[in-house]
Amino acid sequence: MTDPAGSLLSLPPPEVPPQVLAALVACHWGLTGPLHPLTSERDQNHRLDTGTASYTLKLANPAEPAALTDFQTQALLHTAREAPNLPTPRVIPARDGDPILPTKDGALRLLTWLPGTPLAHLPRTPALSASIGRALGELDATLAHFHHPASDHHLLWDIRNTPDLGPLTDALPDDLQPRITTFLARFTTHIAPALAQLPRQVIHGDFNPHNLLADPAEPSHLTGILDFGDMTLSHRICDLAVAASYLIDPTDPTTLLTPLTTAYHQTNPLTAQELHLLPDLITARLVTTLTISAWRAARYPENAPYILRNAPTSRAGLDALTDPMTLATHLLIACGTPT
Fold it and tell me: How far is it, in rounded angstroms, from Cα 269 to Cα 19?
């Protein structure tokens, strides 16, 4: 039977002994030093400290096709060339010049380590929201010119696939299940047809506060954009909706969403149709986060704290977005776009 979440979300991360990974790094990259484990939803990641520099060692989930790993790697290389000011990880090729080392346990890659504190541990402010909007706008403008044969793959986290969450809703708390089921029906009949008309391109897909780093001494200055593992060919506005879903002030959603959206729009202009649909797409991302997280936490209770780390924020955001039409009008006016 086909797993409803797909193999990438259904299989646990690989568990290769650190000494085996260290030997591979020493052999193929000529680097040695202690490996420190990092949390991850699908992959096995470590920080490598050599004494003179630090790196991120990524072992992909064995269910990840080789073409998909290459897609993510080529996107990093493209971004480094076309937008070198963006703080994305740099790919460190192995001694033979190849950026990816195939192993029986998954594809192994080495990336530069980026300094900074995850935004999840910093205060959310309008200035920080604007910085996120500018960075995402520039990244999307850069990725608009990036093409890869593996880009158009199915990813359950992709907002355009929201209707596919149906089989996972049984894992939701009883008080959320009817509400989310109703939204999924509305998405299928009303939101999806409108979304299908909007611009498509490769997007990052996961601009969440755990994937963004900032300087704690200057918290509006981003120092890192991490985790290109959810990249896919989707609708540009979905990337902004993902970022926005983590920046909802429950007392007044416009407080952080306005600077985020206007900064993105100034960097990478949006259409009126995209802005009209944005609040519904933000809701869709909140629904996606809550549903997939609940399903995966039930499946892997030993990793539940990590899997559910964004659930409280998503629940609060969902409760706050009660009037999408008014929010859309506000954002259209803030961006100076005719309604």
Answer: 48
Instruction: Please state, in angstroms and rounded to a whole number, the distance separating the CA atoms of residues 102 and 285.
Output: 33
- Can you give the pTM of this predicted structure? 0.93
Q: Which amino acid is at 258?
A: T
From first to last of its 339 residues, the chain has per-residue pLDDT tens of 345 545 555 577 889 999 999 999 999 999 999 999 998 778 899 999 999 999 999 999 998 999 999 999 999 999 999 999 999 999 999 999 999 999 999 999 999 999 999 999 999 999 999 999 999 999 999 999 999 999 999 999 999 999 999 999 999 999 999 999 999 999 999 999 999 999 999 999 999 999 999 999 998 999 999 999 999 999 999 999 999 999 999 999 999 999 999 999 999 999 999 999 999 999 999 999 999 999 999 988 888 888 888 888 899 999 999 999 999 999 999 999 876
Q: What angle separates helix 324-334 from helix 272-299, to the nearest 10 degrees?
A: 130
